[in-house]
């Protein structure tokens, strides 16, 4: 090969290398631009979307459904992002709501954090176990039967309400913020913990001086809760029942009779007052076997601090 030919070949090789490097650089720049656009461009559905991730669902299926609903623009790129960040298996199950366009990184952060949709469930003062169970079911959180089963769990009763026939009375009335996946048992435990936090321990110490243990105080408070129309009436109603207990008189509290009637139709009759259910305080002296509802703090305070008469 002549020197001229060699120089020409070397020059051509250099040109090809330069062209190749230029093309490679252009490709890298294009890929980088695509990644940048994917990471920084918010995507989002045209309307709010409620998106449920099922326990054990693979990331590929999640990403595909996110793309189909318009939450993200590219399922494969979303999977790549999750793998690159090392969180491919860290997505939390639950119900999510996407209201506004969001970057893929923001969507992924929410799924990894478990930033699920939350609901408010309000339990009024004076609700019974049955009423709470019905509201739990009607609100779409689970079955009525599951709630009642949890509220009658012997282990929980032994821990929070020793001697009681159920957890009636110890499920604190409040507005609870819960997830769609919250189970009946989890809600019951939350309500029991709320009771422990909201009801001061010294109320039970005060009740002991009046001759009432923890269960008896809450039982009396539940009767006061059902009898009172106004909070101001509660200490006076409590005083009446304290006097009857002290004199060993029947309490003669209509709400206790009603509690013992299955499928009560709203009409309390003489026959009802004479029916010897365990809850009938016309027939039996003293307090019934347990609370007849879940009283609020005002009723419990009134039972511990009745009005002086």
Describe the fold and architecture.
Residues 27-39 have low confidence and may be disordered. The chain has 309 residues and is mainly alpha-helical. It has helices at 3-40, 59-68, 75-84, 104-113, 129-138, 144-151, 154-160, 184-198, 201-209, 214-227, 234-246, 254-259, 270-274, 297-304; strands at 49-53, 94-98, 118-122, 175-179. It has a two-stranded antiparallel sheet. The protein has a two-stranded antiparallel sheet with strand order 3-4. 29% of the residues are buried. The chain has three domains: 49-116, Dna Ligase, domain 1, CATH 3.30.1490; 119-198, no CATH class; 201-304, no CATH class.
* Rg over alpha carbons: 33 Å
H/E series: HEHHEHEHHHEHHHHHHH
Which whole number gives the mean pLDDT?
A: 90
What would the principal axes of the Cα set say about the shape?
Answer: elongated
Largest sheet data: 2 strands, antiparallel
């Amino acid at each position: 090969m002549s020197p001229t030919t060699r120089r020409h070949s070397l020059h051509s090789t250099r040109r090809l290398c330069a062209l190749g490097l230029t093309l490679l650089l252009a490709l890298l720049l294009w890929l980088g631009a695509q990644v940048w656009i994917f990471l920084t461009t918010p995507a989002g559905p045209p309307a709010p979307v409620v998106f449920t991730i099922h326990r054990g669902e693979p990331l590929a299926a999640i990403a595909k459904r996110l793309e189909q609903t318009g939450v993200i623009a590219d399922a494969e790129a979303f999977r790549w992002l999750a793998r690159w960040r090392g969180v491919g298996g860290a997505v939390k199950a639950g119900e999510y709501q996407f209201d506004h366009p969001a970057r893929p990184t923001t969507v992924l952060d929410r799924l990894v954090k478990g930033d699920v949709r939350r609901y408010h469930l309000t339990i009024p003062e004076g609700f019974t176990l049955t009423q709470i169970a019905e509201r739990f079911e009607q609100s779409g959180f689970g079955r009525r039967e599951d709630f009642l089963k949890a509220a009658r769990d012997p282990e929980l009763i032994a821990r929070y309400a020793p001697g009681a026939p159920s957890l009636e009375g110890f499920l604190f009335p409040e507005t609870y913020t819960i997830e769609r996946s919250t189970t009946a048992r989890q809600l019951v435990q939350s309500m029991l913990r709320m009771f422990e936090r909201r009801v001061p321990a010294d109320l039970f110490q005060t009740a002991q001086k009046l001759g009432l243990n923890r269960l008896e105080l809450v039982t009396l408070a539940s009767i006061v809760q059902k009898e009172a129309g106004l909070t101001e009436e509660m200490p006076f109603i409590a005083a009446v029942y304290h006097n009857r207990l002290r004199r060993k008189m029947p309490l003669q509290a209509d709400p206790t009779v009603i509690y013992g009637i299955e499928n009560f139709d709203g009409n309390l009759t003489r026959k009802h007052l004479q029916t010897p259910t365990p809850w009938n305080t016309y027939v039996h002296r003293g307090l019934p076997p347990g609370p007849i509802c879940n009283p609020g703090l005002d009723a419990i305070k009134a039972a511990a601090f009745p009005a002086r008469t």
